[in-house]
Amino acid sequence: MNEGCTFYFVRHGETYFNHYRRIQGWSNTPLRSEGAEDVRRSGRGLADVKFDAVYTSDLSRTVQTANIILEENKHAEDLTIKMMPEFREVFFGSFEGADVDDAWQTIIKEMDYPSIPEMFALSSIPERMNATKKADPFNDAEDFMTFWSRVEQGMIKLIDKHRDTGHKVLVVAHGNTIRYLLNNLVADLVDPEPLLNASVSVANYHDGAYHLERYNEVRHFKDIEKID
To answer: Which of this chain's residues are annotated to bind substrate (predicted)?
Structure first.
């Protein structure tokens, strides 16, 4: 077996739109102080990991998150963040900034489900994304193939650069981006749960396949050690 490479996917910290339960795709709000502290705790738990490269989306909440993680890392002196628009969150079109529950109420009408829980239980991720585009009065929301095409291109770039190097690669992105990406790349990961803010998911790529090591992990969070 070759050396492969390992990807550490970290979701950004909690933002104001997350806190207010507003749809946040390409729209941008900064991390709350509580969100930044969770990222710092996550970074402390990853402090001993020697990353060889760091990538983020081009939205500021992921860049802010990556900078905090690197501040806590013991081996980050020579690392430079590379922003990649391929790793943006799903674009929700005219639903951007809307109340989460209000937006889903509109979308379930398009999908002809009686309730939001039933929609999530009985429909697939691509079906929900395609219905979101149809429910958007401006038709600007991304359907699944539009989203997948750009994110897949981002991963192809990373694989082309890091395959068979043994590198550990930090990718700070978004909840849906990471979740949908791993759902499609990891064969035995089916309908994964939504990701927590500042969580880490680890996947190793070798011999042409992705192998999940951790998903939605927050047990590594580490508080500052108190000195008596």
So the answer is: 11-18, 61, 175-176
Residue 185 has pLDDT above 80, yes or no: yes
Is residue 167 annotated as part of the catalytic site, yes or no?
A: no
pTM above 0.90, yes or no: yes
Bridge-based pairing of strands 81-83 and 209-217 is: unpaired
Is-catalytic flag, 89?
A: yes
Residue numbers in the known binding site are 11-18, 61, 175-176
Q: Which of 19, 34, 86, 89 is catalytic?
A: 89
List, as one string, the DSSP characters of 154-211: HHHHHHHHHTTS--EEEEEE-HHHHHHHHHHH-TT--SPPPPPTT-EEEEEEETTEEE
Question: In which band, very low, low, confident or very high, does the pLDDT at 201 lie, cut at 50, 70 and 90?
Answer: very high
Q: Where are the domains of the chain?
A: 5-91+143-217, 92-141
Residue 228 pLDDT greater than 50, yes or no: no
Q: Which residues are annotated as a binding site for substrate?
A: 11-18, 61, 175-176
Domain 5-91+143-217 CATH superfamily: Phosphoglycerate mutase-like (3.40.50.1240)
pLDDT in tens, 34-72: 999 999 999 999 999 999 999 999 999 999 999 999 999
